Amino acid sequence: MGLTWSELRRRVARLGAALDVVVRSDPEVCGLSGSQFHLTLHHGGQGDCTVNDLSLIDCPNELVLMEFERWMRGAGYPLEP
């Protein structure tokens, strides 16, 4: 794997667009949240997300993104390939 911080932020921006929510993004942290979900990634490499039964805390950013995207697909949200 090994996505760069810029790639991670762009991916979160695409997820936010698919969920129709505003993405929070600054040099150290990026994330998004809604009534049923929360996702935060940190520049240092750890992130967290909470959605339905899933709660990941201080996990590698890419694992957090993979699991969050899996939830989105399962919930019927369209994701770019």
Present the secondary structure layout.
Layout: H1 5-19, E1 24-25, E2 29-33, E3 37-42, E4 46-51, E5 54-60, H2 61-74
Antiparallel strand pairs: 1-2, 2-3, 3-4, 4-5
Radius of gyration: 11 Å
Which structural class should the secondary elements be placed in?
alpha+beta
Query: What characterizes the major β-sheet?
Result: 5 strands, antiparallel
- Summarize the amount of helix as a percent range: 25-40%
* Mass-distribution shape: globular
Low-pLDDT parts are: none
For the largest sheet, list the strands in their spatial order: 1-2-3-4-5
Describe the model.
The chain is an alpha+beta fold and 81 residues long. The longest helix is centred in the N-terminal third of the chain and has 15 residues, at 5-19. It has a 5-stranded antiparallel β-sheet, with helices on one face. The two termini are 16 Å apart. The protein contains 2 helices and 5 strands; from the N terminus they run αβββββα. Strand 4 (46-51) and strand 5 (54-60) form a beta hairpin. It has helices spanning 5-19, 61-74, and strands at residues 24-25, 29-33, 37-42, 46-51, 54-60. The radius of gyration is 11 Å and the shape is globular.
